[in-house]
Design a protein that fits this description.
Elements (H helix, E strand, L loop, with lengths): L6 H5 L14 E4 L18 H7 L5 E4 L8 E3 L3 E4 L6 E4 L4 E4 L4 E11 L7 E7 L2 E10 L9 E5 L5 E12 L9 E5 L6 E12 L5 E4 L7 E6 L2 E3 L4 E6 L5 E6 L2 E3 L3 E6 L3 E6 L2 E3 L5 E4 L3 E4 L4 E3 L15
Length: 317
């Protein structure tokens, strides 16, 4: 379509080295496994942590059945792939922590849910890594620890990090008046994050996407394509920065039924929106502190408490 931002071009900035070779070693988990085993297909481990600790960097953990495989802290390059079974993590605190210098992590076909009581803290915490690829993952229900309940937190303190989430859902995270969001991206120090969300549903969270780069001196980029940001108790998309650059690009995305649609605060903050639907929010857009929201003039903005148009125009090329 003429004027539509090319996802292929955007995604090229996020090319990640995750392709597995046919000879890649395999580790296995099963509901009938035992962490005393060697994690083979015929002698599987019981938990993700047991299989992770047994694996060498670059190996893949597979799930034999749709069991609950427990909290895991990932400190090495590894893939967890529960294709065909959709294995799960249920947690009363954090579900998963990724924390390893220069590592590449892939997560596929997993459900990470808060336990029934209490209702968990954070689904996925990404503290340190070079690349994280998240595909067909469901995160839901993290509401405990007022002010710190999140579906996913991205919080490096140094270096460059690339995070890609696709074909996934984060829902029912955070609570009214208590803080929390589906995704919180908050690098500090000189850390730099490139976050790509493609076909991601952020539904019925306190905030859907909360970006705070005021604690870092580096420029950061968030690209959201073909996604849904709906039903937030507070803001749909929030960007907060200082003088450092924060660029948010939104393309082909529905932002609907939130208390506010897109809010950007800080002189370095700039959001650009194209080919998107922004409906049934309070105000569609809000800016403060010298931030700006630019439109490619091919959006559908209607039925908001304040449609916020006309926005400054960005150039279609």
């Amino acid at each position: 379509m003429a004027g539509r931002i090319s996802f292929a071009i955007l995604a090229s900035c996020f090319t990640l080295p995750f392709a597995a070779s046919p000879a890649q070693a395999q580790n296995w988990v099963s509901s009938t496994g035992d962490n005393a085993n060697n994690c083979t297909r015929t002698a599987p481990c019981r938990t993700f942590q047991g299989a992770h600790d047994d694996a060498t960097p670059g190996e893949t953990i597979y799930c034999i059945d749709a069991a609950i495989y427990g909290y895991v802290e990932i400190t090495k390059s590894i893939t967890i792939d529960c294709s065909g079974t959709h294995g799960a993590i249920h947690s009363a605190t954090d579900g998963m922590i990724i924390n390893g210098t220069g590592i590449s992590v892939t997560l596929r076909n997993i459900t990470i849910a808060a336990s029934a009581s209490p209702l968990g803290g954070v689904g996925i915490v990404i503290s340190e890594a070079a690349f994280v690829d998240i595909e067909n993952v469901v995160v839901r229900g993290f509401r405990a620890n007022p002010g710190s309940a999140y579906g996913m937190v991205i919080r490096p303190s140094a270096g460059a990090m690339r995070v890609r989430m696709s074909n996934s859902q984060i829902s029912e995270v955070g609570a009214t008046g208590s803080g929390g969001a589906g995704i919180r991206m908050a690098p500090t120090g000189a850390a730099q994050v490139r976050l790509l969300l493609n076909n991601v549903e952020l539904a019925r969270n306190r905030r859907a996407l909360e970006i705070d780069t005021s604690g870092t001196t580096a420029g950061n980029v968030v690209i959201i394509t073909d996604s849904q940001v709906t039903g937030s108790i507070d803001n749909g998309i929030t960007g907060t920065t200082s003088a450092n650059a924060l660029n948010i690009i939104i393309e082909g995305t529905t932002i609907a039924g939130n208390l506010r649609g897109i809010v950007v605060n800080g002189a370095g903050g700039r959001a650009r929106i194209g080919s998107s639907v922004v409906v049934d929010n309070g105000p569609a857009f809000a800016v403060a502190g010298g931030a700006s929201i630019l439109s490619f003039r091919n959006n559908q903005i209607e039925l908001n408490g304040n449609n916020g148009t006309p926005l400054p125009a960005a150039t279609l090329q």
